[in-house]
Design a protein that fits this description.
The protein has 13 helices and 9 strands. By secondary structure, the chain is of the alpha/beta class. Bound molecules: zinc ion.
Length: 341
């Protein structure tokens, strides 16, 4: 091995060694090997310690990022409400597109949940209607306390939803015919049925009887409200009695079941319609599938308790997509009451 060859070898090793040391100790970028080799020749064993200046320049010791970025909070505000992930197909959909389709996924026809007021707007002609009984509120008859007092829970719900309870009652025209509509709001204590929900529907029935209007109740509920105990269970009987009067007067009642309708609501007024219709894919049942599986110790079939399954097994009369709901209701009322005068 010639001396020249040895030197070249040695220099290369020294270069690698030094570059690694420089890199690890905060010296910054590895430079062009030829430049480094030139610089190393005179004092190749001397390893410079990084100065405070070189430390400042190293990328991992920088305090300020070199690229200015938007803060998470700012980014959230800028993009909030623009996109929505579909629970049906998992795709990201532009919210404006959802507004145009009535909150139905344009890709897989998944029906997003609607709040009570949105529901009323979607049903009535030109989205116009008048509210009734918006000031009814629960008196907390049991003075109930669970994880927090029921009174506090109601107050918080009222503040977050802007409604006094889980139901909105309204009257307006559907294709020119005056109809009384009640819509449940899932966001208010799970759309549960307490004294206010019962009383609001009972009063809507009274208005139907007085003005000879048909009735529509759009359900979205977890059932009876536990915090009102027996008082909430009594609403089942009260509404059922009212619906019987409606039947005797020859006025139609159409129950629209949306995702999810369960418990005491399914067990009373939601299944008592002259027509019981469901939105596509809505979960409708009394007890949830897990409870049933544990009770009967059998695996439930695919799609169990969904509207399509229930129509097939005779529990519902039809599955009506949201876009066809107004037409369907109007045709049903024409059938029950004759064409609009
Ligand atoms: Zn979808």
């Amino acid at each position: 091995m010639s001396q020249g060859h040895f030197r070249a070898q040695w220099n290369r090793e020294e270069f690698t060694h030094r570059a690694v040391r420089r890199f690890l100790s905060g010296g910054g970028l590895i430079q062009d090997p030829r430049v480094v080799r030139q610089r190393l020749k005179p004092n190749c064993f001397q390893i410079r310690r990084p100065t405070s200046d070189t430390r400042k320049m190293a990328w991992w010791t920088r305090k300020e990022p070199s690229v200015s970025t938007t803060s998470d909070e700012e980014r959230r505000i800028k993009t909030e409400g623009l996109w929505q992930k579909c629970d049906g197909c998992g795709q990201i959909i532009w919210k404006k597109e959802l507004d145009e389709t009535g909150q139905v996924c344009p890709k897989c026809n998944y029906h997003f949940k609607l709040e009570a007021e949105e529901r009323l707007t979607s049903l009535f002609d030109d989205g116009k209607f008048e509210f009734f009984d918006r000031d009814l509120h629960s008196t907390d008859p049991l003075d109930f306390v669970d994880s927090k007092p029921y009174k506090d829970r109601l107050r918080a719900m009222k503040k977050s939803t802007g409604n006094a309870d889980a139901i909105l009652a309204a009257a307006g025209n559907i294709k020119g015919r005056r109809v009384q509509v009640c819509a449940l709001n899932l966001k208010f204590v799970g759309g549960s049925m307490g004294a206010v929900v019962g009383e609001t529907i009972a009063r809507a029935i009274d208005r139907c009887l007085e003005h000879r209007n048909p009735l529509v109740v759009v359900s979205a509920s977890g059932g009876a409200r536990m915090q009102e105990g027996a008082v909430s269970l009594m609403q089942m009987a009260k509404i059922s009695a009212g619906l019987m009067k409606l039947d005797q007067a020859g006025l139609p009642y159409i129950s629209v079941l949306t995702d999810p309708t369960t418990g005491g609501v399914t067990a009373s007024f939601a299944m008592l319609g002259d027509l019981n219709i469901g939105e596509p894919g809505a979960l409708i049942g009394f007890a949830g599938p897990r409870v049933i599986e544990q009770t009967i110790r059998q695996k439930l079939p695919e799609g169990f308790q969904r509207s399509e399954f229930l129509v097939k097994h005779g529990f519902l009369d039809a599955v009506v997509p949201r876009s066809e709901m107004r037409d369907y209701l109007s045709q049903a009322f024409d059938f029950f009451c004759g064409p609009v005068a």
